[in-house]
Design brief:
Helix content is 40%, strand content 22%. The chain has 301 residues and is α/β, with parallel strands linked by helices. The protein folds into 3 domains: 3-83, Arc Repressor Mutant, subunit A, CATH 1.10.10.10; 90-163 and 267-300, D-Maltodextrin-Binding Protein, domain 2 (3-Layer(aba) Sandwich); 167-263, 3-Layer(aba) Sandwich (D-Maltodextrin-Binding Protein, domain 2), CATH 3.40.190. The strands form 4 sheets. Strands 4-3-5-13-6-14 form a 6-stranded mixed sheet, sandwiched between helices. It has a 4-stranded mixed sheet with strand order 8-12-7-11. The chain has a two-stranded antiparallel ribbon with strand order 1-2. α1 crosses α2, α1 crosses α3 and α1 packs across α4. The longest helix is centred in the N-terminal third of the chain and has 29 residues, at 59-87. The protein starts with a helix and ends with a strand. This is Transcriptional regulator, LysR family.
């Protein structure tokens, strides 16, 4: 049984919709349908009854939906142990970075670490924060540099490497664009561009809490996987709450204004599994600490 096909099936079975499942998996529907067809072919049984309007589980599909998560969990645990053993055999360190992580000083210092031959090499990968955190917890990554909330990483070591105040990106023609700074209550009735909750849960929840606390009415537009939040703002689809580093390359027909009330903070942290830190990862962390900018934002616990 192909684990990729099993993961795809479990998402389709949970959603009972190929469209919603494809969105969650960040893929189009045709390849998703091929994964399900491949699984059914391997198992020689139909798992889903499909029509133009609905998707339902067959008896065999219901059994796999019930038992499949345990199979997948055991397989992923085995994969984690194998990867851990492989790292001990001299494989490069794998560091995951979100878009915000790439905007910090960390990638440059990692490149310097490699250039000086201080370790066995580093492989960088990029993804959304929630997926990076999951891969870290499964042992597929040695460390992650991404925006994270304190409650999101139980059992992980955390070092805040960048901290910035969140502001508002808005079209240059917006009624508030000439202001020097904004308050959330100034944004009554506005539309906000947001990342999908399933790929950026911390950012989504923290922004929703702040907007609700401000007591304003608002609407949201969720970006699709092939879209960019700053570009949606430039197209007049809504406003964006973000850190300055995230909109550093913003379009010329947009403005970025500080948010004065309430003051919202954007933190980017380096996270790793302390009890499994290899000597090579420890060496990299020591090198990063030596090269960290002295701005009072880097702290570890």
């Amino acid at each position: 049984m192909d684990l990729r096909e099993l993961r795809a099936f479990l998402v389709v079975a949970a959603e009972l919709s190929f469209r919603r499942a494809a969105e969650r998996l960040h893929m189009s529907q045709p390849p998703l349908s091929r994964l399900i067809a491949g699984l059914e072919r391997d198992l020689r049984v139909r798992l889903l009854d499909r029509s133009t309007r609905s998707v339902s589980l067959t008896a065999a599909g219901a059994l796999l939906f019930r038992e499949g998560p345990a199979v997948l969990e055991r397989a992923e645990a085995l994969e984690s142990r194998v990867r851990e053993r492989g790292r001990r055999s001299g494989q490069p360190l794998r560091i995951g970075l979100s878009t915000a992580g790439f905007a910090t000083w960390v990638p440059e210092r990692i490149a310097r670490f490699e250039a000086q031959g201080e370790g066995r090499g580093v492989e960088l990968t990029s993804n959304v924060p929630d997926r990076l955190l999951r891969d870290l917890q499964l042992g597929r990554l040695d460390a992650v540099c991404a925006e994270m909330a304190d409650e999101e990483a139980p059992g992980l070591e955390r070092w805040v490497v960048a901290e910035d105040a969140i502001g508002v990106l808005l079209p240059a023609t917006h009624r508030l664009a000439r202001r020097r700074a904004l308050r959330l209550r100034d944004l009554e009735g506005e539309t906000f561009v947001v990342h999908p909750r399933h790929e950026h849960a911390h950012l989504y929840e923290s922004q929703q809490r702040a907007l609700r606390a401000a007591g304003i009415r608002y609407r949201i537009v969720t970006k699709r996987p092939d879209e960019s939040c700053p570009i949606l703002v430039a197209r007049g689809k809504g406003l964006l709450l973000a850190a300055p580093s995230f909109v550093r390359t913003r379009a010329s027909n947009t403005r970025f204004l500080p948010l004065r009330e309430p003051a919202l903070t954007h933190r980017v942290a380096l996270l790793w599994r302390g009890e499994r830190a290899s000597p090579e990862l420890t060496a990299l962390l020591d090198s990063l600490r030596r090269g960290a900018p002295r701005r009072g934002v880097a702290r570890s616990r």
